[in-house]
Specification:
The relative contact order is 0.16. The chain is built from twelve helices and five strands.
């Protein structure tokens, strides 16, 4: 079964209407058991990482990337966790063109914005030739990155290469001019560079903060669940910074 079909089936399983936009963070938190997602700064060429054990799953997202890119990366990592049989610590870079990465990209693109939703948006807004304003309106509605939106439209032959090259410039200024919140096109602000969702790490950290467990016990719990190399990255972030 191809990755596009898997994404469509997952939307159906999660009760998402064909044309609806999604909050990917809330969806993964409410629908995937034993998943912890951590957002923190990494090297620019790394979009995210993931790993899983028998009982737990963990995803890392690079907060140095734009919010739109972070949403895409979270959906991308879900493909690796849910549909690939691997216990490896997977690091996803921006220039990896392996079949696995292409499958994950197609999955993420469809999960966030299925073709049916794109056709619906086009018809609802009576779009004949996509203007930059149309592009921005659509990506804002579905909370996808500007680059991902342009790639999708180009792939469907709805914009030309010349439009692609023209529309990718000065996006923050254009979105601001049209009255949109421009946070979609920016990296996480400094006070939001580090955050997490999920039960295991949250509860472990709370127990440590409440002095119910020692620092050694805290590290032991995390090591047992996520392996030493992951905890090394979580605490030190040496390899990813």
């Amino acid at each position: 079964m191809n990755s596009t079909t898997l994404a469509e089936m997952l939307r159906h399983e999660w009760g998402i209407e064909s044309f609806a936009s999604i909050n990917i963070r809330s969806l993964v938190y409410n629908n995937i058991r034993n998943l912890t997602v951590l957002w923190f700064p990494m090297k620019t060429n790394i979009s995210g990482c993931c790993s899983k054990t028998k009982d737990d799953k963990v995803i890392f997202i690079n907060t140095n990337h734009t919010i739109g890119r972070q949403n895409f990366t979270l959906a991308h990592e879900l493909y690796h966790l849910l549909y690939e049989d691997s216990d490896d610590f997977i690091v996803c870079g921006l220039n990896n063109n392996s079949q696995s990465e292409m499958n994950a990209d197609n999955f993420a693109s469809t999960l966030l914005l299925p073709n049916s939703a794109l056709y619906w948006f086009k018809n609802k807004n009576q779009i004949e030739d996509w203007s930059l304003e149309d592009v921005i309106k659509c990506e804002q509605h579905y909370q996808v990155s500007h680059h991902a939106m342009l790639v999708r439209l180009k792939k469907m032959n709805w914009i030309s290469q010349n439009q692609f090259d023209e529309y990718k410039l000065d996006i923050i200024r254009e979105a601001e001019r049209l009255g949109y919140d421009t946070s979609l096109y920016k990296a996480s602000p400094e006070n939001q560079k580090y955050s997490s969702i999920g039960e295991l790490i949250r509860l472990t950290e709370k127990a440590y903060d409440d002095k119910k467990i020692t620092g050694g016990k805290r590290r032991e719990i995390l090591l047992r669940s996520f392996r030493n190399d992951i905890i090394h990255n979580l605490n030190e972030v040496n390899d990813l910074e």
